[in-house]
Amino acid sequence: MKLNRFAKFAWFVVAYHVFVILWGAFVRASGSGAGCGSHWPTCNGQVIPRPEQIETLIEFFHRVTSGLAGVFVIVLLVWAFRRYPKASFGRWMAVLSLIFVIVEGGIGAALVRFELVAGDTSAIRGLVVALHLVNTLVLLTFLTLAAWHASGREHAVRVKRPGTAWMLGIGLAGLVIVSTAGAVTALGDTLFPAESLQAGVLQDLDPTAHFLIRLRVIHPMIAVAVSVYLLAIAGVLLETKANVRVSSSIRALRIVIALQLVGGLVNVILLAPVWMQIIHLLLADLLWIILIELAAELLTEEQVVETG
């Protein structure tokens, strides 16, 4: 299906935010979170710093790209208001996207201002990282729905499918838990790197280990359980409404889940190298986007307009 200009831009905004998310993970994994000190919105007290170390350059680039993300959402909002009527779904998705991109920036600023970066191992940092991840997923939800709505689904209306809604809701909630645990686990991999697989296992089994280390055991178990659930409901949903869009989304869902499980195993074996953490996060974001689009398809149908 050929996309109009607004739909293409909306999907670009989704893709761009995924890039910003991945770069943010690189900032954390490379230990560059304190590259601009505790200054925000300036970097080391300067609007445009002269970086003397690579960490400053990495963090400053993240701030610039994050700022552009906000600009793109504002453009999306203005365009949606010009395109859609008052109180329409498209307008609401754009408004909510702007709200949560502002919250996203606020959480990022809090991490910097309260120095919850670099080598900080406090529980409060783990909590803020988890909240950051949840807000990111909510933001991606509204951006994805805005792009989906613009992609030939502007006449779709909600339908009552309580069974389907519950199945999808449980899957989405499970994915939030897995992703949140994964974000905190990745933080632990950065702060407490293992020298070998054996050393990592010994760390995980130590009852006195830091809570970030203990999550390395819990996260994979939750991930496998949620993956099995999503694969199970994928078969059920395929029979519920197997149109072309739904079938394509379910195939993509299955592929990404399989890749994510393999990626998680490789990540553990290789002791969570930065590049593998980025790939693992990319797959998680793609899985979330696909599941949101699948839910939108299954819980809506084309409005029939009678003429004559």
Number of strands: 2
Gyration radius, in Å:
21 Å
Low-pLDDT residue spans:
304-308
Count every helix, treating DSSP H or I runs of 4 or more residues as helices. Answer: 9
Summarize the structure.
The chain is mainly alpha-helical and 308 residues long. The protein is 74% helix and 2% strand.
Description:
The protein is mainly α and 308 residues long. The chain folds into two domains: 1-155; 158-299, no CATH class. The protein is built from nine helices and two strands. It has helices spanning 5-29, 54-83, 89-113, 123-150, 162-191, 197-205, 211-240, 244-269, 274-298; strands at 156-158, 300-302. α3 packs antiparallel against α4 (123-150) and α5 (162-191) runs antiparallel to α9 (274-298). It starts with a helix and ends in a 6-residue tail after the last strand.
Topology:
Layout: H1 5-29, H2 54-83, H3 89-113, H4 123-150, E1 156-158, H5 162-191, H6 197-205, H7 211-240, H8 244-269, H9 274-298, E2 300-302
Antiparallel strand pairs: 1-2
Helix pairs in contact: 1-2, 1-4, 1-9, 2-3, 3-4, 4-5, 4-9, 5-7, 5-9, 7-8, 8-9
Keywords:
single chain, 308 residues, mainly alpha, 2 domains, globular, disordered C terminus
